[in-house]
Amino acid sequence: MDISTWIGKSLGFTSANTITLFGGLMALIGILLFCIDQDWLAVACLIISFLTDWWDGCVARFHQGDRSLMSREDEALLTFIEQLNYRGVTHLGRALDPFIDKIRFIGLLWTIGLEYVDEGVAVLMTGLAVLLTLVRPVKRFLKLDPGGANLWGKRKVYAEVVFIVALVFGTRPLYNGTNPFLTMEFTPTIISMIGTVTLFLASASLYTHIENGYIYYVCTRPSSSPLDR
Question: What would the pLDDT profile of 75-128 be if each residue is shown by its tens digit?
Fold first, then answer.
């Protein structure tokens, strides 16, 4: 039994969506703890939050098994509580995951990131995060394409995690009131470089979503469309 299956079985007493929401709650508590200078408790909450991003997928796949994925139409017939407690992979869960990621990223960016990140850059990062949260459901609503994650977006998630870790260990006095990273001259440069990579990947992901949606529209629109005249 591999580790993912073991996690899914061990946490199978609950649903994947419940774990996702719990991860979001841990992220919010961690952000609040940073605001009141409870740094190590904040780090502990954030670690749990990041782990739930892995656990929810394990639990969803464990419950889903070999069953076919429920269609959006069938899922829409369920109440929100029924969708939340559904034992398996859900479209709700696929929407909640990136939403929780954005809450964690934006919250920590504005809570601990402004020491090394220019406010204008923080606004740009926040704007891109909001647009990336909206573009996928908009594409699904317009039936442009399934609106799944693209390769740039997946890489961006990893970059965001590294960026958050760099901010935590580069801005907080975690070691008995001191932090050697705070006094190193290259710390701001490293954080700035990671932030630049994150910004680039977010921009590339948004562009790819828009481009793929347009290509899908062009390839599937009726030949009688006014655009063909």
Answer: 989 999 999 999 999 989 988 988 898 999 999 999 988 877 889 999 999 999
Alpha carbons 166 and 180: distance in angstroms, whole number = 13
Identify the CA nearest to 199 among candidates 121, 109, 110, 101: 121
In the listed set 69, 97, 125, which residue is the last one of a domain according to the structure? 97
Give whole-number Cα distances, 69 to 11, 90, 210, in Å.
20, 8, 26
What residue type is assigned to position 94 of the chain? R
* Helix, strand, coil percentages in the chain from 3-state DSSP, rounded to 5: 75, 0, 25
The Cα–Cα gap between 18 and 21 comes to 5
Domain hosting 88: range is 1-97
What is the model's pTM?
0.82
Let me know: does 220 contact 142? Beta carbons within 8 Å.
no
Sign of CA pseudo-dihedral 198, 107, 118, 191: negative
